[in-house]
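Pilot study result, target chain (230 residues):
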Amino acid sequence: MKKRTFYSEISYALGIVLLAAGTALTVRADFGVSMVVAPAYIIHLKVAEFLPAFSFGMAEICFQILILLLVAAIGKFRASTLFSFVTTLFYSLVLDGMTALAGFIPPPALAARIALFAAGLVLCALAIAFLFNTYVPPEAYEVFVLALSQKTGGRLGTVKTLYDLSSLVLAIALSFIFFGLGRFEGIGVGTVVAAFLNGPMIAGFKALLEKFFVFRPLFPKLAPKDKKPV
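Predicted structure:
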């Protein structure tokens, strides 16, 4: 079967929009957000108590700067990785917009909440698969997972799952610190489900995309010669 060409720049933009939309849907479903964004979401909730203008997107920017410092710490930081900060800014703006749009959805019943969460989970996994198929550095989260996979030689799906579980532990710790032992904010059964399903789903979507498409740059001169995303 002949593969169709899919331009990397379109893959990048589509990945960002789908990721923001999926995250906004999981927030609206209120089963707990993805463990990857849970730490930033909890920081947003706490800071917003004192600074209402501090949005989810702003918290993402702050947290992802810390993730980029981790990339530097494991020795996989490149000059091109700095562009992931531009990606973070782009994503954060789209995320705040998608979250505002999701706010117009009437309070859903249980069945609708489940549907919203499932749709959000699928969109997030598909989005990251698109971001892994572009030369443009993705968000800091994905940059770190790819860098750690390259550093350790571990399988991408396995490294992604371990990173997600680490984020879940951090989110639980932050929730306890900020809101007390008896209160979980931004964390729920959906967070746990996503922790185990995200890695395999992303790997599966990535394999599916690469089965039908060849990802090539629309602007070859902008793509690095090694075509590595980080």
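One observation from the pilot: The longest strand covers residues 4-7. A full batch analysis is planned for the follow-on phase.
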